[in-house]
Predict the structure.
Amino acid sequence: MSNELSVQVHSKHKKKFENGYPLIFKEAILDTNRLKEEGTILRLEDEQGHFIGRGYFGRQNKGYGWVLTQNENESIDQEFFVKRIQKALHYRTSFFEDSNTTAFRVVNGEGDHLGGLTIDYFDGYYLINWYSEGVYSFKNEVVEALKRLADFKGIYEKKRFDAKGQYVEDDDFVAGERGEFPLIVKENGVKFAVYLNEGAMVGVFLDQRPVRKLIRDQYARGKTVLNTFSYTGAFSVFAVEGGATMTTSVDLANRSLNKTIEQFSVNGIDYEEQNILVMDVFKYFKYAVKKNLLFDMVILDPPSFARSKKHTFSAAKDYKDLLKDAISVTADNGIIVASTNFSGYDMKKFKGFVDQAFKETNGKYQLLEDFTLPEDFRTIKEFREGNYLKVVFIKKVK
Ligand code: SAH
């Protein structure tokens, strides 16, 4: 890792990097032709040859890599990864000490000054997500750092860098002992069944932890709940735990039925008393309107982009219409929980969609709560787009 390539930063982007911006975007580099092998250590310089930052070449979405340090004397070596990961683990001390929550993020990419990789903790197991071929070239150093610093049962990985930036199907076991899956982890006392070696998704999205807790602790009691894009039904499980009278979980994917049954069952909830539907949510909205169904709480948690047989949903263009659908099946004084992980707009714009959707349906509303990423999903102010999550609780006022 000692060879480094000096690359020049365009003068108009110099300030940005000096101010701590971590993503090496294409336009910032004067001669991208010199970038050949992913994983190459880059020394970013201004046009006079002065040091700006040190990082690596790795292609991820529109990015060409990440700045890892602004300290000229810091090299990217084994000790570097030990220091960074040690800091990251230390930052999550309170999570490690809480026996009611055994699943959380320990390294959040650029938020922990390690752009391009994340590490999640699942009750003694560590799961590394690699977002480029380039960052994957540091695998030995990262795994060695975990071996030195963490007390683990096993380490797994997800390589998320095929030609389309998607998951590479593989045996994801890396080190330690193999787990027995499902692994039962806890989140604020509720159980989740997770699978660390079955494709891209493990069964739970950890960034919604505070939202699930609030639904259980303050919103669910006595309510009927419609959970759309429900995946394994995590929101439904928390709603039942909080005293919801009935949940309806809707997801298009066949796998969601068994996964949702499993999540209810590991928590001792009789899934037969809940409604679990494998179907297109847009079709379900039509059905619910036709049958005059109204819910006290409607949860919207779509992916940023999804294509079904009849419908393409893009969070960029269609969120307002999704909200209008939700409004049509929400009872007066009911709550809509609207969530998106689309990083292309901010909270203000997202709330703008809420406003438009209510205006266009002649409805009134009140914003009750909003959430961005939780503490373990550490972000830095120099990279606002890293805080992709936006969740709002909206009351439909009569
Ligand atoms: N809310 C979930 C995570 C959602 S992930 C949770 O809390 O864990 C997005 C889900 O949307 C996926 O499971 C996918 O199958 C589903 N999905 C995508 N398009 C859909 C559609 N048109 N109708 C129903 N589900 C859809």
Remarks:
- The CA atoms of residues 151 and 199 lie 25 Å apart.
- Residues 205, 208, 229-232, 234-235, 250-253, 256, 280-282, 301, 303, 306, 308, 311, 313 surround S-adenosyl-L-homocysteine (CB under 6 Å).
- Residues 78-189 form a domain with the Transcription Regulator spoIIAA fold (CATH 3.30.750.80).
